[in-house]
Amino acid sequence: MAGRKLWLEHDVSTAILMLQSADSRLQDIDDPSLIPVRQLIANDVQALTQVNPVNLTSIALAINGMTEQVKLLPLALPKLPEIPQAEDEVTESIWDAKSNLNKAWVYFVENLVDYQPSSTPIKPMLSEQQQWLAREQLRMALMQAQSAAMAEQDSLFTQSLMTAKGMLTDHYDLEQSSVIQFAESLDNLIQTDIRRTFPDTFQSA
């Protein structure tokens, strides 16, 4: 039963409990000739305690929570500059036509025409469809990481989280606290080792 729990379900804690239960039954028999078997059971228990204790269910639940947060994360949309109000308002009088024209020209040149060379590429405004796609791509990367965690596919798990981190950097507002915390959560998951190596057999079998 301990073997089935370990190799079929990867349930290390229950496998340890079952081995300890087997040892307890042998102890109740109180037969000195069974001590070597109990020693082998102790060896098996010790081997299982060395398995990576990472809780994959907790990781999957954490990723599921992050997936739900995606719809609330602010995208990195370009910020339009505020247009300052003209200091000298134009009048409605026809006698001020020339003065009004001068005021309008000065206001146009000083406030509405602004050329600033930039060495970095300018991100275009995202359409509603592109915004939806950016969110769905991030959600899909997280869902793939969640599936990989439950299947204990460590390479795919890390790769999916790295993909999600790249999408976050490319499409979301990295100056917002919610995005910063989301990125930190991704980094913590990326650094989490989900690899677990199990013994092929029990010495006590």
Can you offer a commentary on this structure?
With 205 residues, the protein is mainly alpha-helical. The protein is built from eight helices and no strands. The protein is rod-shaped.
Summarize the structure.
The chain is mostly helical.
Structure keywords:
single chain, about 200 residues, mainly alpha
Helix/strand layout:
Elements: H1 2-7, H2 12-29, H3 35-49, H4 56-69, H5 97-112, H6 128-150, H7 154-171, H8 177-190
Helix pairs in contact: 2-3, 4-6, 6-7, 7-8
Largest sheet: none
Beta strand count: 0
The average pLDDT value, as a whole number, equals 86
SSE order, one letter for each helix or strand: HHHHHHHH
Query: What assembly state would you assign to the polypeptide chains in this entry?
Result: single chain
Shape: rod-shaped
How does the helix and strand content classify structurally?
Answer: mainly alpha
Portion in helices: 55-70%
Q: What separation lies between the terminal Cα atoms?
A: 11 Å
Radius of gyration, whole Å: 32 Å
Number of helices: 8
Give the uncertain stretches in residue-range form: none
Strand percentage: under 5%
